[in-house]
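Lab notebook, bench 4. The sequencing result for the construct came back, and we need a structural model before the next group meeting so we can plan mutations. Quick request posted to the team channel:

Model the 3D structure of this chain.
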Amino acid sequence: MKKAIVVASFGCSIKDSREKYIETIENAVKNNYKDMNFHRVFTSEIIRRKMKREEDIDVDNMKTCLEKLKSSEYTHVYVVVTHILPGFEYEKITRACHEYEDCFESIKVTRPFLDDKMGSEEIDALTSYIGSSKDEATVLVGHGTHHSSHKYYSEFEAKLRGVFPELYIVNIEGDPYITDIIDELKEKNYAKVNLYPFLIVAGDHALNDIASDEEDSVKTILSENGLNPNVFVTGLGADEKSIHLFLNRINEIITI
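Done. Here's the predicted structure in C-alpha cell form:
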C-alpha cells in the first residue's frame, strides 16, 4: 500500500500570499498526515504559467499530478480541496480523479468549504475569521461564479445571519455586487462597515478588487458612499479554525 495526499488549491502567484494562506494549509496537512507522501496541485493554468515564467517554479495541475502518482505506483490517493465552492475549478479536480479512478485502489476528494452539507462547522470558522460586532455591518466579498454553485453564497449568508444579523455576502463576479446593497447599508446608518475577503488567499482580488484605492474597488465604492469601511486584508487560509475545517474534511474521506 502506497498512499499520497494531495492539496489542490486555485493557486496564487504572489509569493508572500502563497506562503501565508496556501502553505499554512499545506503544512497543516503534512504535519497531520506524515504517513502519506505530500503533493501540491494548483488548478489555475494562468497562475501555473505565471509562476513558471516569473519564479521558474513548476506546479502540477490535477491530471499531471495523477499521472505522476500512477507512474510511481501509488495505491491510495486523497485529494484535499481548498476551494470555497464546488464550481468550475473544483470540477477540474473531480473530472481528473474520475478519469484516473481505475489507476488506483482508491481515490477520494474532499468537499469544498461550502456545499449542501454546510452548517455549524462553517459558521464557527467564519465566526473565528471575522470576530463579532453588534452595531457594525460586516461585508464578506467572495469571488463569485457563473456556475450553479454560486447559490451557496446566499444560502450561507442566510445561515450566518442567525449569528450575525448585520452580515452581507457580495461578490466580485456575480450578484449581488457591492452596489446592490449600498442603499440598505445607508438606510441602516451603520457607524462602520467591516470589509473582509471571503477568499482562501488574500492575493490579487483582495489587494486590488477589494482593498485598493482604485476607483472601482469595493473599499472605494463604500468610501464614496460615506460608509467608512474598516478593511481587513486577509484570507481564510490564515485562520486556524478554517485550517482545522479542511483537516476535518480529510477525515471524512480516509478509509484506510
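The mean pLDDT is 95.
Will bring this to the meeting.
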